Amino acid sequence: MSKYILLNDWKKLRLWGKTLVIVDFGNIYKTYFEQSWIKLFKDSYNFLIKILSKITDEFNSYKVKKDNIYVFVGIDNNIKSSAVFAQKLKEFLGDKNVITKPVKFLKQQDWVVRRKADFDALIGYFTCQKQEEFKTFVFLSSDGDFVDIYESLLKNNKQVVVFHGLTFETKRYTSWGISKKKKKKKYNLGKEVRELVFKHKGKIFTFPLDKLI
User: Fold this and answer.
1) What are 205's strand-pairing partners?
2) How far apart, in Å, do the first and last CA atoms of the chain sit?
3) What distance in Å separates the CA atoms of residue 120 and residue 192, rounded to the nearest whole number?
4) d(CA 8, CA 49)
5) Element (H or E) spanning 164, and its range?
6) DSSP letter string, 110-149
7) In a domain, 50, yes or no
8) With contact defined as beta carbons under 8 Å apart, do 146 and 125 qualify?
9) Which of 23, 37, 68, 150 has the smallest set of CB atoms within 10 Å of its CB?
10) CATH, residue 29
11) 118: left (phi > 0), else alpha (psi -120 to 50), else beta?
């Protein structure tokens, strides 16, 4: 996976100018919830604030302002902590910087109910509205559906930075006649996004989300 990352240390990346940060929280939440390294944090709010604070404080080439961070998060009215999470975010970023809507509950073929907020279209529209105002766009998302947004920005001579999620694959192997399990880290970055990295070298950069931890 490292061959797709043009710069290993995101802190050394030279941002082109005024920077917009877009967080598709529902898209990175699964990564947060499932991975063992996230046990370092008490809850999802602490996890996200730690990441956002790093982005505002540790890019060395340009100051990313908290006012230019927008988080898109679904609210589950059945879970009190969901609304509390959104309210705490608004206190940290400001009301206008946290975009919310109720989650939908979709029943899959195996009858498992899946929670979904569907922010893709809204994020696309929001990004288009901001194109003239910003030079650099930072996305926290693994969603391959955003590839058209990235390509539109790149064609308009914008810089794109994507912090994407990761999963762990469990593989079995045999050692000294004993069957064992081993977890292997696997980065979630869509094929279409990887192709953009090659097509627009020097304009789009991708980094694993755990680099912010």
Assistant:
1) 161
2) 19
3) 16
4) 23
5) strand 159-164
6) TS-EEEE---HHHHHHHHHHHTTT-SEEEEE---GGGHHH
7) yes
8) no
9) 37
10) 3.40.50
11) left
pTM: 0.83
> Which of the four pLDDT bands, split at 50, 70 and 90, describes residue 171?
low
Using CB atoms within 10 A of its CB, is residue 59 exposed (0-12), middle (13-18) or buried (19+)?
buried
Contacts of 20 (CB under 8 A, 6+ apart): 68, 70, 127, 130, 133, 134, 136, 137, 138
97 in any annotated domain: yes
Instruction: Report whether pLDDT(96) > 70.
Output: yes
Cα separation of 58 and 213, whole Å? 12
Tens digit of pLDDT for each residue in 99-157?
998 887 666 565 554 566 678 889 999 999 999 999 999 999 876 779 999 999 999 99
> Within a domain: residue 114?
yes
Rounded to the nearest integer, the mean pLDDT of the chain is: 81
In a domain, 96, yes or no: yes
**Single-letter code of the amino acid located at 132:** E
Residue-range definition of the domain harbouring residue 146: 19-212
* pLDDT tens digits, 1-15: 344 444 678 998 999
Number of domains in the chain: 1
Token digits for 152?
Answer: 């539109």
Cα(15)–Cα(61) distance, integer angstroms: 6
Contacts 24+ apart (CB under 8 A), 130-134: 130/20, 131/156, 131/158, 133/18, 133/20, 134/17, 134/18, 134/19, 134/20, 134/68, 134/158
Asked if residues 196 and 154 have their Cβ atoms less than 8 Å apart, the reply is yes
